[in-house]
């Protein structure tokens, strides 16, 4: 992954440890995951967004997000913050992209994998 694609708190897949971890710090050449160790950016990959992840996190209609599947692996995600503005992500593929959309819409939600 590229440094520019990441924000602190994003979920990523650590290919070195073979597990999902959250970004703790972003450096110029290395990224810290789960406040443990530093890794090179080519050692982390995005986590594909799945129906199971969406169902686990957004099963109630009033949780600020409406989502629907177009064709695998594409999801249309609409974030509905309290200020009335809508943010629509037509082709959300990865968990970190969903996290970015939620933050942009002002929705504070911890994603469970």
Give an overview of the whole structure.
With 113 residues, the chain is α+β, with helices and mostly antiparallel strands. The chain starts with 10 loop residues before the first strand and ends in a 9-residue tail after the last helix. A hairpin with a 7-residue loop joins strand 7 and strand 8. It has a five-stranded antiparallel sheet. A three-stranded antiparallel sheet has the order 6-7-8, covered by helices on one side. It is globular and about 40 Å long. The chain has helices at residues 51-57, 95-104, and strands at residues 11-14, 19-26, 30-33, 37-40, 44-45, 65-69, 75-79, 87-92. The longest helix has 10 residues, at 95-104. The model has no long low-confidence stretch (mean pLDDT 84). It folds into two domains: 3-45; 51-104, no CATH class. The chain has two helices and eight strands; from the N terminus they run E-E-E-E-E-H-E-E-E-H.
What's a quick, concise take on this entry?
The chain has 2 helices and 8 strands. It has helices at 51-57, 95-104, and strands spanning 11-14, 19-26, 30-33, 37-40, 44-45, 65-69, 75-79, 87-92.
